[in-house]
């Protein structure tokens, strides 16, 4: 975090009853949240118009749940998790999803030469555009049918990290398919 003061120390002082520390923490956290939420909305292709609502919801959740923060841990990951959940909740309420039903596009997915061999070659070329780790994860999960947990164990990654990498790889593949820069 780019705080002028240590946010974890401010939160500890606030939990001990220091109102001035809590006021300073809220000012710094609000500014930081505006940047974090703005980036999240931009990544989802959404306007920044509702950003302040998400910031306020996050600050309220931080206030209501402040006793659940582990004072031996840094504050930023805890705050970032709250902000992420509030952003996701906001996007869901607005009907945002990244899901595309493949059946709706089945006619447009056929290879130009018609036939599985051409489609396989196209898929291999598209996969080759991905960084090695993303390609490995896509192949293991989407082609080999392995679970995120299995892939994570094999690569030394958490299941969550595998899912995030898979999601990013699939978005990159979609851009490659549309002819955009990966």
From TrEMBL:
Key words of the record: DNA-binding, Sigma factor, Transcription, Transcription regulation
Domain RNA polymerase sigma-70 region: 22-95
Keyword Transcription regulation: yes
Stretches assigned to the RNA polymerase sigma factor 70 region 4 type domain: 123-173
GO MF annotations, alphabetized: DNA binding; sigma factor activity
Pfam families: Sigma70_r2, Sigma70_r4_2
Keyword Transcription: yes
Gene Ontology biological process: DNA-templated transcription initiation
NCBIfam families per record: PRK12512.1, sigma70-ECF
Family assignment from sequence similarity: Belongs to the sigma-70 factor family. ECF subfamily.
Protein name as annotated: RNA polymerase sigma-70 factor, ECF subfamily
């Amino acid at each position: 975090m780019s705080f002028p003061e240590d946010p974890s120390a401010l939160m500890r002082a606030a939990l001990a009853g220091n109102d001035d520390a809590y006021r300073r923490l809220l000012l710094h956290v609000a500014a930081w949240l505006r940047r974090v939420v703005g980036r999240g909305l931009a990544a989802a292709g959404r306007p920044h118009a509702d950003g302040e609502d998400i910031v306020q919801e996050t600050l309220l959740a931080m206030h209501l749940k402040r006793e659940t923060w582990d004072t031996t841990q840094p504050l930023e990951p805890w705050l970032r998790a709250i902000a992420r959940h509030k952003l996701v909740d906001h996007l869901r309420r607005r009907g945002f999803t990244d899901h595309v039903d493949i059946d709706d596009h089945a006619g447009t997915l056929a290879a130009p030469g018609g036939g599985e061999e051409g489609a396989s070659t196209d898929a291999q070329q598209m996969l080759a555009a991905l960084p090695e780790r993303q390609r490995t994860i896509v192949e293991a999960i989407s082609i080999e049918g392995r679970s995120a947990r299995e892939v994570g164990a094999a690569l030394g990654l958490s299941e969550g990290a595998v899912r995030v990498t898979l999601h990013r790889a699939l978005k990159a593949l979609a851009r490659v398919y549309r002819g955009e820069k990966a």
